[in-house]
Amino acid sequence: MIGAGELQATADLPTGWTLALILTLISLGAHEPWRWVGMFLGRNIDVDSEIFRWVRAVSTALVAALVMRLLVFPAGALQGVHVVVRAVAMVAGLAVFLLAGRRIAYGVLAAAAVLVVGQLAIG
Amino acid sequence: MIPSDDYEPPSPEPADRGWHDASPRYAFWRGMAVGGSVPGIILFASAAGFGALARDAGFSLANAVYMMGIFFALPAQVVMLDQIARGASVWAGTLAVSLTGLRLLPMSVVLMPLLKGPRANRWRYLLAGHFIAVTAWMEGWRRLPLVPAHLRMDHFIGIGIGLVLATLAGTAFGYELAGTVPPVVAAVLLFLTPIYFLLSLIATASGLSDRLAIGIGALLGPPLYLVAPGFDLLLAGVIGGSIAHFGAKARTRRAE
User: A118 and A89 in one domain?
Assistant: First the structure.
């Protein structure tokens, strides 16, 4: 079901080459420069220095926060899976990963399998 | 040729005999092969989820695939789609995208020392930099220490191009299949990315600071998203990372 507001928004959507140009400008102007700045700042950094270790911890915590956001507040179809099923699948994947000698593929497969089974059993 | 189950924590010595006398070309192709292994497959699935979203937002197939390549950072792309589909102003969209891109800064800093070497030049740095998003960053962080220093740049560019190709294919695949797969399959596709990120973080963690950063970052993520959406990842990174770093340091000092 589409609301009137969404139809209006879709009508305003830039298309074709105009949209490609907008995407290019926003990417190169507002997104890519962070990568350049990071590489510039990192070019002479000492990997044993205090600041490098801190930045590394910041990166790690940031990705961990992203993981939890994607699991707790997911987008799209994952919203249809109950949060308890998501949590149980995550813990199962973690357990299999650790028991299988830290093999990522096994952990991911186990988590996906538990998610499907859990969703089909509950939903 | 390419081991698919080489998911061991990085060791300081290049233990893999495949790297002995290896050429830059070998390093590049071996990096490309990552696009067809577990991280590439998971990224393919994530990109398929993005392709479906882009179709819902009214994008053409060409622009959906182009957006995947030019940004190569799924959070920025999803934010951008959301803003465009809602008819938000270009400036609001640009600001939101820029905020999601800021998280790439510390990742780039951390990866840079691994990329330095005789094969690095300005254009290769710019190209390698474009691939810095969570998946390529983690694969680089995990694999590059095992690669001889002079081959790391070629290897990382190979990893990046392999992963980009996987996402371009995934975007087109998801765009074409949107709405035709059962909801539980679509849900699993979206679930693969966070679980892969989590397990990769744990696999590459070494030392107390890393483990604390994972735990505290994970705990801070959801509440900060509710309090400060848009800034949540940066806040969780800076607060969680600082607690982890200084906490681990205090602990080590006390032990000495």
Answer: yes
In a domain, A3, yes or no: no
- Judge if ipTM > 0.85: no
Residue B16 has a pLDDT of 64
Whether B98 and A31 lie within 8 Å, measured CB to CB: yes
Q: How many CB atoms lie within 10 A of CB B218?
A: 23
A120: containing domain:
75-123
Residue A57: pLDDT band (50, 70, 90) is: very high
**Mapping DSSP to helix (H, G, I), strand (E, B) and coil, where does residue B163 land?**
helix
3-state secondary structure of B254: helix
A105: contact with B, CB 8 A cutoff = yes
- Would you tell me which residues 59-118 of chain B have a C-beta closer than 8 angstroms to some C-beta of chain A? 59-60, 62-63, 66-67, 70-71, 73, 75-76, 78, 80, 84-87, 90, 93-95, 97-98, 100-113, 116
Residue A24's pLDDT is 94
Q: Going by C-beta distance under 8 Å and a sequence separation of 6 or more, which residues neighbour residue A7?
A: none
Helix, strand, coil abundance in chain A, percent, nearest 5: 80, 0, 20
Q: Are residues A39 and A49 in the same domain?
A: no
Q: What is the pLDDT of residues B120-145, one digit of tens each?
A: 888 999 999 999 998 898 899 889 99
Query: What does the pLDDT look like over B18-69, one tens digit per residue?
Result: 788 889 999 999 999 999 998 899 899 889 888 988 888 889 999 999 999 9
Pair A27, A66 in one domain = no
Residue of A nearest to B207 (CA): A57
3 state SS of B247: helix
Angle value at C-alpha B14, between B13 and B15, nearest 5 degrees: 90
